[in-house]
Amino acid sequence: MTALVLLPGMDGSGHFFRDFCHHLGPEITPLVIAYPPDQALDYQGLTDFVRVRLPTDQPYFLLGESFSGPVAIALAAERPPLLAGLILSCTFARNPVPPLQVLRPLVRFAPLSSRWSALAAPFLLGWNAPLGLRQTLRSVLATTPASVLRLRLREVLAVDYSQRAAAIAVPVLYLQATRDRVVFAASGRHLAALLPSLLLARVSGPHLLLQVAPARAAEHVRAFMAAGRTAE
Predict the structure, then answer these.
(1) d(CA 141, CA 137)
(2) What is d(CA 160, CA 157) in angstroms, rounded to the nearest whole number?
(3) How deeply is 80 buried, as exposed, middle or buried, from its count of CB atoms within 10 A (0-12, 13-18, 19+)?
(4) Residue 73 is inside which H or E element, if any?
C-alpha cells in the first residue's frame, strides 16, 4: 500500500475526490487533506496547514489539484524526506491568466453567490457535464464562504512559485486537460521548462479532470506511482 495525499481545488473541501479515489485501486491509500472552511488562509497559511498533516511514518506521493498546485509545489520544494513524487493536475506555478492580475484589487468585491457555480460550471466541468457533477459543484461551493473564495482567487492572481518549482527534486507528473478553459496549456509548458524531467500526460476532458475523467486520470497516476515505487 502506498499513500497518496490529495490537496483539493478552490472549494477546499476534498469532496470532489470521491470518484477519483475509487479508481485508484487497492494498492493506493488516499489521504485527502481538506482546508478549514472557516479560515481565510493564504498560500503560505495553507502550506503550513498541510505540512503538519503529511505522513511521517511512510513514503507518500503528493497531488495538488488546480488551486492547490502552488501548495503542493511549495511543500515539494522543501524536499521532505518521505516524499516519493509529485502529481500536479490542471494547475500552475504562477498566475495562469496574467492579464487578469490587474483585476486583483477588485476581487474582494466580487459577488460570489450561489449563482457563481452555475456560471462557472461550463468552464470547470464542460458543457455536457452530468447533472450529478453540477449538483456536487454547486453544493461544495455553497459550503465555502465567499470571503474564503475571494482570498483564494486573489492568491491565484498574485502567486509566482517558479523558483520553488525549479527546486523540486522528486519525479513529477503533470495531468493536462485537453479542454481546460481555466488553466491553459501554457502553465504546463512553464512547469516543463522549470522541470525538464517532468512527465506530461494529456487527458481528454475539462478543467476538473479528476472529476469528469476519474478513471483515465487514475490510470496515469497509478502508472506514475508504480514506476516510483519500482525505482525506490
Answers:
(1) 6
(2) 9
(3) middle
(4) helix 69-77
Give the end-to-end CA distance of the chain in Å, rounded to a whole number: 14
Q: Which CATH architecture has domain 2-231?
A: 3-Layer(aba) Sandwich (3.40)
Q: How far apart are CA 131 and CA 42, in angstroms?
A: 32
Provide the phi-psi class of 79: left if phi over 0, else alpha when psi is between -120 and 50, else beta.
Answer: left
Contact 155, 104 (CB under 8 A): no
List beta partners, residue 23.
none
- Are 81 and 56 contacting, i.e. CB atoms less than 8 angstroms apart? no
Q: 77-120: per-residue pLDDT in tens?
A: 999 999 999 999 999 999 998 656 555 654 565 666 556 666 77
Strands of the 60-65 sheet, one edge to the other: 28-32, 2-7, 60-65, 83-89, 172-177, 199-203
Q: What are the grid coordinates assigned to 231, written together?
A: 525505482
Cell of 178: 485537453
pLDDT band at 122 (very low <50, low <70, confident <90, very high): confident
Give 97-104 contacts, CB < 8 A, sequence gap 24+: 97/157, 97/184, 100/157, 101/157, 101/158, 103/157, 104/154, 104/157, 104/158
